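Complex 415.
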Amino acid sequence: MGKALDGVKILDFTHVQSGPTCTQLLAWLGADVVKVERAGEGDITRGQLRDVPGVDSLYFTMLNGNKRSITIDARNPKGKKVLEALVKKCDVLVENFGPGALDRMGLTWEHINSLNPRMVVASVKGFGPGPYEDCKVYENVAQCAGGAASTTGFDDGPPLVTGAQIGDSGTGLHLALGIVAALYQRNTTGRGQRVLAAMQDGVLNLCRVKLRDQQRLERMGVMEEYPQYPNGKFGDAVPRAGNASGGGQPGWILKCKGWETDPNDYIYFITQAPVWEAICKTIGREEWLTDPRYATPKSRLPHLMEIFGQIEEWTKTKTKFEAMAILNEHDIPCGPILSMKEIAEEPSLRATGTVVEVDHPTRGKYLTVGMPIKMSDSPVEVTRSPLLGEHTDEVLAELGYTPSQIAELHAEKVV
Ligand code: COA
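Predicted structure with coenzyme A bound:
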């Protein structure tokens, strides 16, 4: 069976996390992704957070599956020639260097466009045009500048970053969408275009509901579904909402049996209005059904924390999986807090290819997260990440270099 992006060639000039996330997704969709790395060194993450001495780290291997690796010294004139040959041959160049680095390599948009007017040039940067456009940015900087940190955590604590890599992987995902759309538009225009995904913008897009709440707060002065209501204070900016659901259906994280010893024995519990009756009956609080303080979603809002406290008395008597099974029988939305250990061992995630075991020549077997988007006509087979420069000779040969020219490039340390 074919794949969605069969025939698409990607010149992958990415490093660390955001760009590699994007190109790995494109590779899973069927594109031929050639990752260009610095000769001798490679992507810095190959050596970061190593768990096995001398072996590519999990940081690298889990972000660079299904790609080919070629090493090129981009500052060497002969290296530049190889790069230009790749630009002519490929459909997309993806990069996430610091601001201006691609231009300093001589690969300006104008130059790329003159070499290959059909090429899509896609970049991740920390910020879009504006006061911070020249700044280098990593994940947590983006979480802070994109509005996530100020709205995450508890009211009485400092701003908090989340473990979900919404700045890096989230922006890589945004960029992949831009690239696929640019390729689609090229079908009618015949032209490539520049695609920019700024990490601040990507994070803000994922925090859209908080900008919604900012405007609600300005209009109303309070937000009734936030834990600060009715006893706490609201300032002039959206406060941290703890584990509040963020939507119209109040929710909170509640302790389950075993919480004293296992930090993940908790469940997320949502008091969705249509199943309020089922909730009351399940936890043995039928009297709430006729009590005017609890009868409607609106009347419950000032009592939410007290309600969750009472529900927790029930969840504490069940394991998170027992609670999940009982609540699901009544369509009460809830979710166990799963640890990474539980996720790694979950058979259904293995069965769907969401968690995949891959074999690597120097590391051996490792787990990676597979393609999160499943397509009926574009199957994904997750393969291992390449060794540094593993495909240099192969790619050079495809570009028309002869064996002796390739040997010369190696001898001169151009590749
Ligand atoms: N051959 C020769 N030189 C190479 C090369 C190659 N194959 N590949 C990269 N380089 C050089 C570049 O020319 C550049 O040199 P210059 O800045 O002196 O012109 C340098 O290596 C790369 O610089 P930079 O990308 O700024 O790396 P860094 O390690 O200093 O910064 C980041 C890392 C992530 C902070 C920065 O790349 C960045 O802000 N990227 C955009 C935002 C982003 O994606 N952040 C998230 C990363 S997960």
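The two ends are 35 Å apart (CA to CA).
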